[in-house]
Amino acid sequence: MALRMNTPQSLPRVLADPLSYRPGPHPARQEPHKLARRLRRQVGQAIADYAMIEEGDKVMVCLSGGKDSYTLLDLLMQLQKKAPVRFELVAVNLDQKQPGFPAHVLPDYLRAIGVPYQILEQDTYSVVTRVVPEGKTMCSLCSRLRRGALYAHAQEAGFTKIALGHHRDDLVNTFFLNLFHHAKIAGMPPKLLSDDGRHVVIRPLAYVRESDIQAYAQARNFPIIPCDLCGSQENLQRRQVQKMLDAWERESPGRVETIARALSDVRPEKLGDARLFDFLSLGARQDATRIDAGAWQSGDLPDDHDSV
């Protein structure tokens, strides 16, 4: 896997006000600044609530070229200036060698704003197109290969946190995907430890609405790289869930926000998972004989059990 790096020795004046970087037309400033303040507040709250960033952290900000990751990097740079702890930010992009990918866009942008960056080069596109049958969505395999490459680089480069650009709507959408298609109550947590225990993944945009990110990205005029270069589209299940959530939001504005808040207010005793709550001991008499499910199903009760 090839690696291109850029580490500025001194940061240009543009970092004094990240909002001043506008490669395109200069939009009205008042509304974008109000939006920026709200987003900084939401990101700062999420970082504090989940202890996402600590003193001395080296944070790998995964940058795809989409609106979410641009917004994530931009807001973290703003918060970094006045943060109560010192931490390092490095933008990392994985060039997957998709045909037509504009490889110059991200390096040009990152040099302009003065942030250290690393470009990884790994031809996962050829792997995906070889393995996935024609007409099938590539997103799932592509995501796994990308995650593996980024995790491996984080380990080699000594990053202590991996920051991803998933937002509030992604968290809610994933919850319903798991509920409808995997029969489990699970979602996309704001902070998690990777399965191998080596990486802490954080999602500082966990409290931010996608519509606000869209508005912010437009106001900032980020050089967006579309995620359709491979010809693959988001899988049908996720699209269906998003259509459902959009319909709910039109009928009852604020419903998605209510669901998002519920994800951080879980009551195990009001559900049915005996691994999370001790239902077996709840109200049980000390002298009672515990009978397993097999006995109940077969009617084979203990000899000392009184018949009715």
Structural summary, described in words:
This protein has helices spanning 30-49, 67-82, 105-113, 124-131, 139-157, 168-181, 210-220, 236-251, 255-262, 293-298, and strands spanning 2-6, 58-62, 88-95, 117-121, 161-163, 191-193, 200-202. Mean pLDDT is 85; it is low at 9-30. Strand 3, helix 3 and strand 4 (117-121) form a beta-alpha-beta unit. It contains ten helices and seven strands. The chain has a seven-stranded mixed beta sheet with strand order 1-4-3-2-5-7-6, sandwiched between helices. It is globular. Keywords: 4Fe-4S, ATP-binding, Cytoplasm, Iron, Iron-sulfur, Magnesium, Metal-binding, Nucleotide-binding, RNA-binding, Transferase, tRNA processing, tRNA-binding. Catalyzes the ATP-dependent 2-thiolation of cytidine in position 32 of tRNA, to form 2-thiocytidine (s(2)C32). The sulfur atoms are provided by the cysteine/cysteine desulfurase (IscS) system.
In short:
41% of the residues lie in helices and 10% in strands. It has ten helices and seven strands.
- Average pLDDT for all residues: 85
Structural class: alpha/beta
Tally of individual domains: 1
Distance between the termini: 72 Å
Give the DSSP E fraction (strand runs of 2 or more residues): 5-15%
User: What would you say the CATH architecture is?
Assistant: 3-Layer(aba) Sandwich
Largest sheet: 7 strands, mixed
The portion of residues assigned to helices is 40-55%
Helices and strands, in N-to-C order? EHEHEHEHHEHEEHHHH
CATH class value: Alpha Beta
> What fold name goes in the CATH topology slot?
Rossmann fold
Shape: globular
Give a count of the beta strands, DSSP E runs of length 2 or more: 7
Strand order of the largest sheet: 1-4-3-2-5-7-6
The CATH superfamily is known as HUPs
